[in-house]
UniProtKB/TrEMBL annotation:
The keyword Signal applies. It comes from Roseimicrobium gellanilyticum. Residues 1-30 form the signal peptide. This is Secreted protein. The keyword Signal applies. Keywords: Signal. It comes from the Bacteria.
């Protein structure tokens, strides 16, 4: 009699273990369906007016990003207004900033509107702000070596 009770218990334990394992799998599958699917991080958009300001100087861009291409115009004022380095679209000038965006980083070339200065810089958007850093440059220009610019809100159009 003892042998048949032990066999029954083993059969019950196997059945219970199998049922428990099945319920666990079903439960895990249900949990997976509840989790939102992760979306890849949105690529940063450099388009807009960006500005950096101190008491004695100011620096800004008007940038347009189309796909992975970026171009724009700059305005730099230093020395309390004694030096101005500007290239504006309104005057029909070619863009002073051109480049490509790869993995969220813009590698750009820039050209001075003041002197013969030109160079290469890197731009990244971090927490909604644009980080600018010159990698190399030659000639005379008034671009800051590095700074953090804030995106300006679009102005309401006058009717």
């Amino acid at each position: 009699m003892m042998i048949s009770v032990n066999l029954c218990r083993r059969g019950f334990v196997k059945s219970a273990s199998l049922a428990l394992a099945t319920l666990l799998c079903i439960s895990l599958q249900a949990e997976d369906k509840k989790k939102p699917t992760e979306q890849p991080a949105a690529a940063p958009d450099f388009t807009g007016d960006w500005n950096f300001q101190t008491k004695e100087s100011g620096f800004g861009f008007d940038l347009v990003q189309t796909g992975d291409k970026i171009e724009g115009y700059h305005n730099s004022v230093v020395g309390g207004g004694r030096r101005v380095d500007t290239v504006l679209k309104e005057f029909g000038s070619p863009p002073s900033i051109t480049g490509t965006v790869v993995n969220g980083v813009a590698s750009v070339k820039f050209k001075s509107g003041y002197g013969d200065g030109e160079g290469e810089a890197e731009m990244k958007i971090v927490k909604g702000k644009l980080e600018w850093k010159i990698k190399n440059s030659t000639g005379q220009h008034y671009f800051p070596e590095e700074c953090v610019l804030t995106k300006q809100k679009p102005r309401a159009k006058k009717n």
